[in-house]
């Protein structure tokens, strides 16, 4: 599966979806990572309040990876190049 997350809210949704798709509860995920379940809850509701280390640990547990790629968004300056 492929997702695009451009905001903390997008990221929260993707992580929650991936966890639920693996049929894991927040408590089960937290136990696997050795963290309190509130950390999982925070990341799934307010990703902007979480650390990069926590994010990467959760992605690894969900068998996901973070890829940084150029955005496909068209900028207004790009439109000028067309004309």
What attributes characterize this protein structure?
mainly alpha, globular, 83 residues, 434 Repressor (Amino-terminal Domain), single chain, 5 helices
The proportion of residues in beta strands is under 5%
Distance between the termini: 36 Å
How many DSSP H or I helices?
5
Q: Using the CA coordinates, give the radius of gyration.
A: 16 Å
Mean pLDDT: 84
CATH architecture descriptor: Orthogonal Bundle
Task: Please write the CATH class name.
Answer: Mainly Alpha
Report on this model:
The chain is 58% helix and 0% strand. It is globular. The protein starts with 7 loop residues before the first helix and ends with a helix. 12% of the residues are buried.
How are the secondary structure elements laid out?
Elements: H1 8-21, H2 26-33, H3 37-45, H4 52-61, H5 76-82
Helix pairs in contact: 2-3
Concise overview:
By secondary structure, the chain is an all-alpha fold.
């Amino acid at each position: 599966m492929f997702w695009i997350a451009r905001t903390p809210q997008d990221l929260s949704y993707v992580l929650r979806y991936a966890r639920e798709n693996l049929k894991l509860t927040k408590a089960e995920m937290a136990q696997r990572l050795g963290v309190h379940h509130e950390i999982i809850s925070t990341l799934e509701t307010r990703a902007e309040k979480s650390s990069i280390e926590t994010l990467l640990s959760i992605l690894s547990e969900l068998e996901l990876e973070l890829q940084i790629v150029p955005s496909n968004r068209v900028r207004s300056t790009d439109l000028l190049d067309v004309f």
